[in-house]
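Table S4 entry, Carboxy-S-adenosyl-L-methionine synthase.
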Amino acid sequence: MKDEIFKKPISKQFEFDEEVATVFDDMIGRSVPFYKENLALVRDLVIKNLQEDATIYDLGCSTGTLLIEIAKKSDKNLYLKGIDNSAAMLQRAKNKAKAFGVDIEFIYADILEYDFSLANCFIANYTLQFIRPLKREKFVKKIYEKLEDEGVFIFSEKIITEDKRLNKQLIDIYYDFKREQGYSDYEIAQKREALENVLIPYTLKENEEMLLQTGFRFVEPIFRWANFATFFARK
């Protein structure tokens, strides 16, 4: 279903409710540059870095697309677990997984409170940015502690740039991208207002430093387009 949520005046801050879940796959594909290509990059890196019987958590898994893609492509036995605090998103994820005939455990929970088992990989695609800064580093530390040695953490984020002029230029270019995807200026402004104080991005450097200070021995940005980036970290 096509995303037309912000064609009408907003009445609340952005949340992943039933209305958003209904159009989410279209929304993220039209709102995140190179979304499909980046998803394939993360999928392939996950598969290359994991052995038989590895456990993978997708934090804020939404409609389950990434885990489904991993399950479809990998020839290994993997324990795939998707966690989200949106029941509407998880229902769509379960329906999609069933349609593709893949075995994925979807868990309705708050990732900040959930007690993870030891895992070989954590994924967080555009999830950390919704965690308040005071809690974000503590949560990344929790991920680090629940990773097996040599385990990997791969995450994508919207980012900001320290140079204010460049930051404004990158945002303008991003809005041009959204217009090319069919969003109007009104829709762009409405969503920007709905996300105010809900999505709080870090700079590229701040994300890297957060990981290193948490204990990860290796951190590398593996993708960037303007104000979007993906990071790979190994314990």
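The mean pLDDT is 90.
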